[in-house]
């Protein structure tokens, strides 16, 4: 369910992916490797203008990135990092 890319073009899209990541972290499906800002510190009423989170599957170690407000060539999205 995490392998399909999800476009994150609005703050609401980003916050939906934050909720998804938090749920996966709480049930030990994903581990957070890097987060700016910390997922636990994100306030729905004052979301960050820019964010980048790197998560890892606890079963297969596949890496995923959630990027928002950056300047990535492929745009802001939730996506698997291939080649790891």
Task: Kindly summarize this structure in a few lines.
The chain has about 80 residues and is α+β, with helices and mostly antiparallel strands.
What would you say this structure looks like, in words?
It is built from one helix and five strands. The protein has one helix spanning 11-26; strands at residues 6-7, 30-36, 51-57, 63-68, 77-81. The protein is an alpha+beta fold and 84 residues long. It has one domain. The model has no long low-confidence stretch (mean pLDDT 92). Helix content is 19%, strand content 32%. The chain has a five-stranded antiparallel beta sheet, covered by helices on one side. Strand 4 (63-68) and strand 5 (77-81) form a beta hairpin.
What is the fold's blueprint, element by element?
Elements: E1 6-7, H1 11-26, E2 30-36, E3 51-57, E4 63-68, E5 77-81
Antiparallel strand pairs: 1-5, 2-3, 3-4, 4-5
Name some characteristics of this structure:
single chain; alpha+beta; five-stranded antiparallel β-sheet; 1 helix; globular
Q: Which structural class do you get from the secondary structure elements?
A: alpha+beta
Taking all Cα atoms into account, the compactness measure Rg is 12 Å
N-to-C CA distance: 18 Å
- Topology order in helix (H) and strand (E) letters: EHEEEE
Low-confidence stretches: none
Q: How many DSSP-defined strands?
A: 5
In order across it, which strands form the biggest sheet?
Answer: 1-5-4-3-2
Give the overall pLDDT as a whole number: 92
Number of helices: 1
Assign a percent range to the helix content: 10-25%
Query: Mind describing the biggest β-sheet?
Result: 5 strands, antiparallel
Q: What gross morphology would you assign?
A: globular
Question: How many distinct folded domains?
Answer: 1
Sheet-strand content, in percent, reads: 25-35%
């Amino acid at each position: 369910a995490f392998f399909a890319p999800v476009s994150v073009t609005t703050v609401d899209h980003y916050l939906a992916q934050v909720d998804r990541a938090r749920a996966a972290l709480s049930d030990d499906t994903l581990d957070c490797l890097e987060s700016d800002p910390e997922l636990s510190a994100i306030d729905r009423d004052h979301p960050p203008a820019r964010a980048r989170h790197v998560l890892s599957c606890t079963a297969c170690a596949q890496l995923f990135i959630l990027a928002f407000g950056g300047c990535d060539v492929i745009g802001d999205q939730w996506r698997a990092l291939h080649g790891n």
